[in-house]
From TrEMBL:
InterPro entries: AAA+_ATPase, ABC_transporter-like_ATP-bd, ABC_transporter-like_CS, BCAA_Transport_ATP-bd_LivF, P-loop_NTPase. SUPFAM superfamilies: P-loop containing nucleoside triphosphate hydrolases. Belongs to the ABC transporter superfamily. This is Branched-chain amino acid transport system ATP-binding protein. CDD domains: ABC_TM1139_LivF_branched. One of its GO terms (biological process) is L-amino acid transport. It holds the Pfam family ABC_tran. Signal peptide: none annotated. It comes from the Bacteria. It comes from Parafrankia irregularis.
Length: 231
């Protein structure tokens, strides 16, 4: 459903991505891995209309989206969950849900979120910034449920969270995948990403240096061959 063809992108005079090709099929889960500064966040931004490529082409279901802004991607079912959660800390949980709901019934959306994340049920009137890190990430993930997207792009969902909360977040991503939602997941924990994904892309210095099936590679291989961090 999503295709990046020879995408080059960057900021000001800095070129970050160079001729990147990437495809995500309907219902496919892609893990996007690579060292710090490799350009993973930049790739997600270029793939969802938040950063316009300098050259190359981004398309959704065959339609050229390269020059389109992010809200047009959203209208076509793309949900971008940025690093840093993308929630409004000074607004209440309910107000955040109202913004995520984008014109949908807020009560119904809030009920859906509470059903999915009972922990948020007693906190609807609380400022989102006063939630724990895990609860804030759950609130951020709510967007991917109440808007019924076809493609969800997730940047470092587990950053700073405990292993237990990370398990919960990954169960929810797996549930989205079971529903047939396509996912692109940037993750520092290679093992977790491999367990979820069908396809692995490894990025280094803004270029794709490996594409393959997640079943055909181990986390150790990825560290040794591509990330250069013996562990
Ligand atoms: N807004 C910006 N303006 C200028 N340069 C930027 C900007 N955002 C990122 N960069 C640079 O682009 C490069 C790639 O950054 P990016 O955040 O895409 O990498 P990443 O793989 O997601 O890294 P990390 O794992 O550390 O988040 C880095 O050298 C970074 O300094």
């Amino acid at each position: 459903m999503l295709t990046l063809h020879e995408v080059t992108a960057g900021y000001g005079d800095t070129t970050v991505l160079r001729d990147v090709n990437l495809t995500v099929g309907d219902g496919e889960v892609v893990a996007l891995l690579g060292p710090n500064g490799a350009g993973k966040t930049t790739l997600l931004r270029a793939a969802t209309g938040f950063l316009r490529p300098r050259s190359g082409r981004v398309s959704l279901d065959g339609k050229d989206m390269t020059a389109e802004p992010a809200h047009r991607y959203a209208r076509r079912g793309v949900c971008h969950l940025p690093e840093g959660r993308g929630i409004f800390p000074s607004l209440t949980v309910r107000e955040n849900i109202a913004i995520q709901a984008r014109g949908r019934d807020v009560e119904k959306s809030a009920a859906e979120v509470v059903d999915l994340f009972p922990a948020l049920g007693t906190r609807l009137r609380q400022a989102a910034g006063s939630l724990s890190g895990g609860e804030q990430q759950m609130l951020a993930l709510s967007r991917a449920y109440i808007t019924s997207p076809r493609l969800v792009v997730v940047d470092e969902a587990s950053l700073g969270l405990s292993p237990r909360v990370t398990d919960t977040i990954y169960e929810l991503l797996a549930r989205l995948a079971e529903r047939g939602v396509s996912l692109v997941v940037v993750e520092q924990y290679v093992q977790r990403a491999l367990a979820l994904a069908r396809t692995v892309y490894i990025l280094n210095h803004g270029a794709v240096i490996h594409v393959g099936r997640a079943n055909d590679i181990t986390a150790d291989d990825i560290y040794e061959k591509y990330l250069g961090i013996g562990h």
